[in-house]
Specification:
With 122 residues, this protein is mainly alpha-helical. Helix content is 70%, strand content 3%. It is built from five helices and two strands. A two-stranded antiparallel sheet has the order 1-2. Strand 1 and strand 2 form a beta hairpin.
Length: 122
């Protein structure tokens, strides 16, 4: 598939897709006779995986290392579990931070709604 179709199917811009390719996150790219990039079907799943890992807080270097380990079938389960535990700890901390922000926003919303009622705006 051409980059335009991969872009459409993944929601990732072509600039980002090219960057991922350059960083070694997408390797399965061929070239057609006219030198256009030719992405296999599995590139859709690979990009989705990169996006999910990135959203979970993995750096591109960590993602590349993980993908290289999976590709070469050399992943150490204990090492992989340790990486996941570290990331989970960071995600849990982020969740706590977001809950605290949500609580503050809720309090401010309630204060503003009460003020609006006092001034007859509601």
């Amino acid at each position: 598939m051409r980059i335009s179709e991969l872009e459409r199917r993944t929601g990732i811009t072509r600039d980002t897709l090219r960057y991922y390719e350059k960083q070694g996150l997408i390797r399965e790219v061929g070239r057609s006779g006219n030198n256009y990039r030719d992405y296999p079907e599995q590139a859709v799943a690979r990009v989705a995986m990169v996006r999910q890992l990135k959203n979970l807080g993995f750096s591109l270097n960590e993602i590349r290392e993980l993908l290289e380990a999976v590709r070469s079938d050399r992943i150490d389960c204990l090492q992989g579990a340790a990486v996941m535990a570290r990331k989970r700890t960071l995600v849990d901390a982020r969740i706590r931070e977001l809950k605290a922000v949500s609580k503050l926003l809720k309090q401010e919303q309630a204060r503003l709604e009460a003020s609006a009622r006092e001034h007859g705006l509601v």
